[in-house]
Amino acid sequence: MIKHMEVTDKNVSNSDLNEKNEEETVWPQILAILAGGLGAFTDGVIFSWTSPFIVKIVQNKVDYDISEEEAANFPIIQPVALIITGLLISNLCDVIGRKKVLLFLAIPHVINLLLSAFARHVYVFYAARVCAGIGDAFLWSALPMYIGEVASPKVRGVWGNTLASGLYMGQFAINVVGSYCDIPTTSYIFLPLPILFFMIFIFMPESPYYYLMKKDYEAAKCSLKFLTRKSNVDPEFNQLKHDVERQLSESGTWKDLVSISSNRKALLAGFFLRWSQQFCGLPVFNQYTQFIFQKAGGLVSPRVASMIFSALCLILNIIVVTFVVDKFSRKRLYASSLVPCSVVLFIISIYFYLDQMMPSVDTASLSWLPITALVSYQVVTSFGVTVIPTLMLGELFSSSVKAKGLTVLMIAMAAGVFMTNGIFNLLNTSVGYYAPFLLFGICTVLSSILSFFVIPDTKGKTLEEIQMTLKTAE
């Protein structure tokens, strides 16, 4: 009898050990996130395509007879297409699933690269930028949601910002390749990427949240088994089922997005994060990198400077998401990033003012300042501005309104990109190069103050715990 009890105790102990080992298996979640990140990488290439090629297109009058004013529309058309597409596909993630929406991403990416390769007329380039905006809509409506739902809290803290990391990798890649290759060659180099993304991501699981919303419980369990590599997922399944059912007890209408206090707070926080990110000048720096360096002059050529800038974007993003973002409050990180960001923007504005508006002042001794300021900008924004908004997108909303909430924030982001690019072009031509950076600096100061009152802290919390935090704060 004693021996039997010892054997039983040993079996129980082994069972507990196996269960513990199963709980620590997170690589399938990371694999699914990285597979989605490949789509973000291609999107980053296409989004930042304007950085190396606006200058080349305007200067090349043999292959492209396109003026600077016509080329200035490239970064503006893309967010307009994103807004229109975003409205049309607002419920698509809840209808066909997050995974299928992401698979559609490959189509506009392939068309964009093919159009860019063969384009000679400005309107063909415009069509390519429309496809870029359509791709943005598929990416931003589905990938933040997908990452937030397939990742556990400990995985989400480090890997939840894969979308932004993928975008920065794409930005770096297009600045390097685009600096040394012409448009057709560059397009052919990157054309296999969306095809590779489709071939890999098709084998990834759908979000278990989506299956639970559709009451496909067996499929939800299969998804959980893939993501956790556990043979028994009943505890996780029951907890998720309870959480989703509670969240779906809300009707999930567009009205609920503003009438329910927790949803309203999530929407306000999302709006603030997206607009404060755009109005600190981030899309302008990403899409006009070589243009800005060309106008600023300095010791380093615009081509090399843009590669340094985009490389820093990538390296700092990886460092921050790996070692920083999950160790500090989201709110504190964001505010601590905005304050020095505003200082750098004011310095850039002063330099352009002296260089353009005060010809009597010799700025030759300040030729080191443009590249130094742009590098400093990337350093200070990497600790919050470039990381926190994207990371929190998949965390804020209840399942019942998540698709609608992310659609609204996607449109808000596109509107912000459209407005900042438009303001940049308008103030550049009508006032001076210093004016947009002065405006962005003022906006960033205001954002740093508001961040303490608007942003909830989601670090280390499950999606359900975040909803409870928003509700208890009512």
Automatic annotation (TrEMBL):
<dbReference type="GO" id="GO:0022857">
    <property type="term" value="F:transmembrane transporter activity"/>
</dbReference>
<feature type="transmembrane region" description="Helical">
    <location>
        <begin position="186"/>
        <end position="204"/>
    </location>
</feature>
<feature type="transmembrane region" description="Helical">
    <location>
        <begin position="125"/>
        <end position="146"/>
    </location>
</feature>
<dbReference type="InterPro" id="IPR036259">
    <property type="entry name" value="MFS_trans_sf"/>
</dbReference>
<feature type="domain" description="Major facilitator superfamily (MFS) profile">
    <location>
        <begin position="28"/>
        <end position="459"/>
    </location>
</feature>
<keyword id="KW-0812">Transmembrane</keyword>
<keyword id="KW-0813">Transport</keyword>
<keyword id="KW-1003">Cell membrane</keyword>
<keyword id="KW-0762">Sugar transport</keyword>
<dbReference type="InterPro" id="IPR005828">
    <property type="entry name" value="MFS_sugar_transport-like"/>
</dbReference>
<keyword id="KW-0472">Membrane</keyword>
<dbReference type="InterPro" id="IPR020846">
    <property type="entry name" value="MFS_dom"/>
</dbReference>
<feature type="transmembrane region" description="Helical">
    <location>
        <begin position="433"/>
        <end position="455"/>
    </location>
</feature>
<feature type="transmembrane region" description="Helical">
    <location>
        <begin position="374"/>
        <end position="394"/>
    </location>
</feature>
<feature type="transmembrane region" description="Helical">
    <location>
        <begin position="158"/>
        <end position="180"/>
    </location>
</feature>
<dbReference type="InterPro" id="IPR050549">
    <property type="entry name" value="MFS_Trehalose_Transporter"/>
</dbReference>
<feature type="region of interest" description="Disordered">
    <location>
        <begin position="1"/>
        <end position="20"/>
    </location>
</feature>
<dbReference type="GO" id="GO:0005886">
    <property type="term" value="C:plasma membrane"/>
</dbReference>
<dbReference type="Pfam" id="PF00083">
    <property type="entry name" value="Sugar_tr"/>
</dbReference>
<protein>
    <recommendedName>
        <fullName>Major facilitator superfamily (MFS) profile domain-containing protein</fullName>
    </recommendedName>
</protein>
<feature type="transmembrane region" description="Helical">
    <location>
        <begin position="406"/>
        <end position="427"/>
    </location>
</feature>
<feature type="transmembrane region" description="Helical">
    <location>
        <begin position="30"/>
        <end position="51"/>
    </location>
</feature>
<feature type="transmembrane region" description="Helical">
    <location>
        <begin position="333"/>
        <end position="354"/>
    </location>
</feature>
<feature type="transmembrane region" description="Helical">
    <location>
        <begin position="305"/>
        <end position="326"/>
    </location>
</feature>
<keyword id="KW-1133">Transmembrane helix</keyword>
<feature type="transmembrane region" description="Helical">
    <location>
        <begin position="101"/>
        <end position="119"/>
    </location>
</feature>
